[in-house]
Write a structure and sequence with these properties.
Blueprint: H1 2-27, E1 29-35, H2 42-59, E2 64-70, H3 75-87, E3 92-94, E4 112-115, E5 127-129, H4 134-147, E6 153-158, H5 163-173, E7 179-183, H6 187-197, H7 200-215, H8 222-230, E8 242-245, H9 249-261, E9 270-273, H10 281-284, E10 291-295, H11 298-312, H12 318-336, E11 350-353, E12 358-362, E13 365-369, E14 371-376, E15 379-382
Parallel strand pairs: 1-2, 1-3, 3-4, 4-5, 6-7, 6-8, 8-9, 9-10
Antiparallel strand pairs: 10-14, 11-12, 12-13, 14-15
């Protein structure tokens, strides 16, 4: 009799454990992860996986479970991997990394993708761009312009494949622009265009005319005045007080060099650019300082890099930080919504503070509330 009671008790315990297991599985948030694990971009994908593992460790909850799949940086493979995730009962996916891999994802309309891209044009309806887009950056620049009562801003954009994104960012942020110019990145053509934008030839001629006038005048101090003028390159001011340069790396430096050549200096005009990810080479370019730009929070980035390095003995790429935050964002939404309704959390107005900064979510769109920095005399300073 006692043996029968023991057996019944054990069966009952197993039954309860089964129920608890079923409940825990039902309440788990299953997240797909679409990243390149093979091919030229495999290292990017592997670092993103490490960052998501780090996020799970820091969250310290059994509620989240992540399922990585390879995209091979190929849109066809991306779609097949997404369908495999769907077969696992997953409807929310972080990734893919590259804009080109979104090509066929509208065929998986029942899935929602949090792509790493910062492009916002022509996205499939089931894809949310989570990168640092132009609207987020221009919203931050707009705040700086307003704070400093800067009224006449010209906007310089290279004739590259992201000019339409810039136009959309200008429209969405409602930033006031005095004039917009698109330039050729080829150095000779660029310099010629900057000369035209800054009225360089006219200002240069003004200087020569003034020297000639003084030479023919009876002014007793004309020799000293002429000597002072000969130290200058131009006379006359330009009709703007700040310049936004939507460029990066060596191309950005080429634009600044052309501006300096045409006698437009950051000492008397605001030079503003886009997120530079704290490019250290800008710290040594003293001729182009002060220079201003919006960015993610530097202190948070440094803390994340240190944590990542301590865990994996390597430095993370920038997408790793974004993937870390996206896991935290999904966990945050899971606390506010039922498991089956997490996707709806991207439609309602929400905000989430991550390592990058504040995610502002509404109507299936994500913008970032960024910080604003200045480099002056070789030192990076936070403005706000």
């Amino acid at each position: 009799m006692n043996k029968i009671l023991v057996i019944l008790f054990l069966l009952f315990c197993n039954f309860l454990l089964g129920i608890n297991y079923a409940i825990s599985e039902e309440n788990k948030v299953k997240i797909g992860l679409l990243v390149p694990l093979t091919g030229d971009n495999a290292e990017i994908g592997k670092q993103i996986i490490k960052a998501t593992r780090l996020a799970l460790k820091d969250i310290d909850s059994d509620k989240l479970e992540i399922f990585p799949k390879d995209t091979r940086s190929d849109p066809n493979k991306t779609l097949r991997s997404a369908e495999e995730l769907r077969d696992l009962g997953i409807s929310l996916i972080i990734g893919p990394v590259f804009y080109e891999n979104l090509l066929y994802l509208n065929e998986a309309s029942d899935l929602k993708f949090l792509s790493f891209t910062n492009k916002t044009l022509d996205l499939p309806k089931n894809v949310i761009s989570t990168g640092i887009n132009s609207t987020s950056q221009l919203n931050t620049i707009k705040k700086f312009l307003k704070k400093n009562e800067i009224d006449k801003t010209i906007f310089l954009t290279p004739n590259l494949n992201y000019d339409l994104e810039i136009k959309k960012g200008i429209k969405d942020s409602k930033i006031r622009i005095f004039k917009k110019h698109f330039y050729n990145t080829e150095p000779t053509k660029l310099t010629k265009q900057i000369e035209e934008i800054t009225n360089y030839e006219i200002r240069k001629q003004n200087l020569l005319d003034e020297i000639t006038r003084l030479e023919n005048s009876d002014d007793p101090n004309k020799e000293n005045k002429i000597k002072n003028l000969e130290k200058k390159y131009t006379i006359g001011n330009v009709n703007f007080d700040s310049i936004i340069i939507a460029d990066f790396d060596e191309s950005l430096k080429s634009v600044i060099t052309s501006l300096l050549y045409t006698d437009v200096s950051p000492k008397n005009k605001y030079f503003i650019t886009f997120n530079q990810w704290f490019d250290e080479s800008l710290l040594v370019e003293t001729a182009s300082q002060p220079i201003y730009y919006p960015s993610i929070n530097k202190e948070n980035l440094e803390q994340f890099k240190k944590k990542f390095f301590n865990q994996f003995n390597e430095n993370p790429n920038h997408l790793s930080l974004l993937s870390y935050d996206l896991v935290g964002l999904i966990y945050y939404l899971s606390l506010k919504n039922k498991i089956s309704e997490i996707n709806k959390g991207f439609k309602a107005k929400n905000s989430f503070k991550g390592k990058i900064g504040v995610f502002e979510i509404e109507d299936n769109k994500i913008n970032h509330k960024l910080n604003f920095y200045k480099i002056e005399e070789g030192i990076l300073k936070e403005i706000f």
